[in-house]
Amino acid sequence: MIGSTLISVLIVSAIGAALAAVLVVSEYFIGNYGECRIVISDDREWKVQGGRNLLSILTAEKIFIPSACGGRGTCGLCKLKVLEGAGNILPTEEPYLSKEERAAKVRLCCQVKVKKDLRILIPRELLTIQEYATRCTRIINLTHDIKLFRLQLIEPATMDYVPGQYVQMRTPVYEKSSVEVYRAYSIASDPADKSIIELIIRLVPNGICTTYCFKYLREGDEVRINGPYGDFRLSDTEAPIIFIAGGSGMAPIKCILHHMKNVGSKRPAVYYFGANKTGELFYTDLMRQWESQLRSFRFVPVVASVEGRETWNGEVGLVTQAVQRSVNNGPECEAYLCGSPGMIDASIKVLEGLGVTDNRIFYDKFS
Amino acid sequence: MSIGAEIQESFVVMVAAIFTQNILLTYFLGLCSFIGVSREIKGAVGLGLAVIFVITTTTLLNWIAYHYVLVPLGLESFRFILFIIIIAAFVQFVEMVVERYSPFLYQQLGVFLPLITVNCAIFGAALFMVIREYTFIVTIGYSLGSGIGWFLAILAMAGIRQKMAIDRIPRGLQGPGITLILAGLMALAFIGFAGVLQGR
Lengths: 367, 200
What we know:
Chain A is built from nine helices and 17 strands. Chain A is α/β, with parallel strands linked by helices.
């Protein structure tokens, strides 16, 4: 009985295996489209093994096209312009493409199988996300728990980013962590120099990445980052700006201010920067210098409490209280916030109370 | 049975499979792709033709596998597994070949092939041909008829749905809801054919 069952199972398995073998062999001979060339936006090209769909090939080449369904043709997100070599639009793509898109040769790249040389266009934002090898050239103490890390890009040598964006930094395997981790940090450096990325990092007790940066990373070490990411950036309006930041939230605001100085922006801007005590303020001299260089920029440091014999003639209290006290043109303003979730939520509440509409409040929340 | 009688029988079975015993409208098999791809006539024709091809070829392949492999080995109870494997492998193979050698055919029919692999009408036809003990020649008529019947059903449905696109359908019934109701009405209409071939 057991013997005959076993034999039956074996026979059926053998038939299945034989069919699978036929498929594998025919895949090798029939499904083999040889080497194909893909040219991206006319300035990059490489050779790939044909036969797979465009989305998976691009992902393998570290070009990350948004896709929610994982290439099954049901989300319609992975749209790209394929100028040459994709053949006709397939019935599976039709429901997702409008008339204008069809005319512009937009395709769902998960449905486009690479069978011959392709010429495609990829939006610049997607192309610029890549991995960078860098060297840490300076580490500067800003406060007792915040440091600035200056990274010199090695390969690629420059990063094209929009002020306000962030990068992800790789922490290698080290004593305190057995896996590689990535953490996001906003770019703080002057965007005029695209070969240097500065990050402002606050030590998080027991944080894997920040502990590595503070205790293990030395000047001269190699650091890997990828990016740039994020849509926190200055709008192109002329509305007066309220910047609010705390701690390492300084980073993207500083980058944006560099940019405003570089382009000679005349937008009125007030920067409220909160700290617990005067010893936690940093870049105050730089900001004072910018106050005289930028047309209408004002820096308002706010400390929560003043210790004993200190002399402090600035704002005291929470940063939100300072905003509450001094902003009187709320409905005209745009607000840019960066800091802890608590600070941002409190700020949004105060700003809305002052008449700043919520579509003009932009923020970058630490998470 | 003589060859002539078999061919005659085959023809009768084919007409029955198209009209009185329509695999979709009488047995309600292959409903998911029927509902999914019946929005436009163009896609429905493509899918319908692909079903005719796959249902005919795989049912015949399965007939051979059943009578020359499973029956001699006494493994009839494994037919479910074997039929599924054969259908899946064959469809995948055909897709590969069509994609390589006939871009036009792939464009028209090939893209539907993965949808059909899991179509229960095709598996159902293979099981019916065993249960009803059809001979090879009769199976040719039966499988062809089943495919044509399925094709007719989805073509009719796509025609109705294309006309219905501008109708005001209650929101809860839009899409699959109204399609199922239509399928039920079509099935009722097809009962009218029942008298054509008594006892089949």
